[in-house]
Amino acid sequence: MTKAKMKLYGIPQLIEADVDPKGNIVNLNGQRFQTNELSVDVPISGTVYGTLLNYKGAFAALNEAMTKSPYHEPPKAPILYIKPVNTFSSCNMPIPLPSHTQALEIGAALGVVIGQKATRVSEEQALSYAAGYTVVNDVSIPHDSVYRPAVQYKARDGFCPIGPWIIDRSAVSNPDELGIRVYINNELKQENTTANLIRPVARLIADVTDFMTLHPGDVLLVGVPEKAPSAAAGDIVRIEIDCVGMLENTVVREQELVLGVAK
Q: In the CATH scheme, what is the code of domain 44-259?
């Protein structure tokens, strides 16, 4: 079992728990639970910052386009975007599928949860600023444009499931060697590893805090691997990250959620 922090509905503060990331088991008050037996809430409280093109394969796929107008060369600094609070959702909650959309793009991402104020930190000290790690599904509507802010595609309600907990930093010996897998209806659809990051976790934290401050509770997503799989209405999506945990959600048509059919 590993130390983690999590949040339950009805309890305003984070609670400490012993968890088994492989089995998605939680020990609370001497009792063992599966996460789907608990009312798990979103375990983070700050801003979620996503990072584009930080996987080698994702970068290579757009390498030729980046040399053309309007940029003419690949980016030299991390490309960030925000997943606002309206996107936050918890483990086992439905992911809304907007009307006139056939499927959603599933973005499996390791989330680095910041534990102390981080400004211009060195790469050598960067990991000490992390409180722990969590699993994030950076959901988006498939789109081609990378030149305009993709707010309507990435920032819709419920488009950022997070959790089910924050695993303690000490439980992850090397965040740059974590396997990541996406299952849809229990079928493996994507497999990658953080060993393929262009900017390893410590360097990413250092590069981002060189121009902006990260605060306790903020989450920095290290990136989404190339060839993200798609999920349609009724699909059960499970993201697994070694040593961190597994995040499961079901895609449900938005109009069904509005009508209260799916809960």
A: 3.90.850.10
